Amino acid sequence: MAHVLGQNQYGKAETRVVRITRGGARHEVKDLSVSVALSGDLDDVHLTGDNANCLPTDTAKNTCYAFAKQYGIASAEEYGTRLARHFVDDVEPIHRARIRIEEYFWDRIRTPRAQGRFIGSEEVGHSFVRRGSEVRTAEVVWDGSALQVVSGLHGLVVMNSTDSEFWGYIKDRYTTLKEAYDRVLATEVTARWRHSFTGAPGQEEPDWDGCWAEVRRHLLEAFAETYSYSLQQTLHAMGIRVLDHVPGVDEIRLQLPNKHHFAVDMEPYGLRNENEVFFAADRPYGLIEGTVHREGTVPVIPVD
Hints:
Blueprint: E1 15-23, E2 26-40, H1 43-47, H2 57-71, H3 76-90, E3 94-110, E4 123-142, E5 147-160, E6 185-195, H4 208-225, H5 231-245, E7 249-258, E8 261-263, E9 278-280, E10 286-293
Antiparallel strand pairs: 1-2, 2-3, 3-4, 4-5, 5-6, 6-7, 7-10, 8-9
Helix pairs in contact: 4-5
């Protein structure tokens, strides 16, 4: 029976790169986890063990460090694009590079002991605190002719304490959920959005940091401003808000787990719970997912 080698790729996963820019007393920190996946003329590596076309994964790791030093890290997308272009354009057997990046946020520590009366004087220029669970993500794919850039975030936890209902759903013999006309709506947002930018000649490169911040702002505003009858409705409102306000984004995919808050029965304690005290359930949880894209575009962000 004949055998065929199918799709394959290799690379270095989760290289931690921390780049500190020392601009006098005020420092800047970029904290990334970088995963490189390469594919190309690699059949002989698999079939015969001939490594002539194999760039060691250790070299991929070292390249991540070297590029952080040589070029700095203006943004996750810019840094990932530079890496992807290098592996395809400068390493002959490699025809496609995918760079996935997670960025972790550090906020400046403020202190009342700081001296001076200028804006920001209460910040210590070299002291930082890691910010919660929110993570910025980026994925860059370069095949030698076109870029595909997908930005994103995960771990963004949000909650509306009112303006949310859920009723009128299917009820069968196994349904025990009570209809809710004033409920807590909470979720942990995972979002990925694809830019229309492809790196074509003459195409202006986006302001990656500005665009990311703008998408995040519209996600939050849509969540806060939507009177919700279902988390699905909220997801759609968040998606269309981004597409309506950020012209450089062609599609966005959202994953919204429903972080259930159930009102605690306080009758056994002789108390009345007036929608004030809740049990925050860890699992199981409802998981709402969906893609919103511009008419005429073909969505490419994987659904799983």
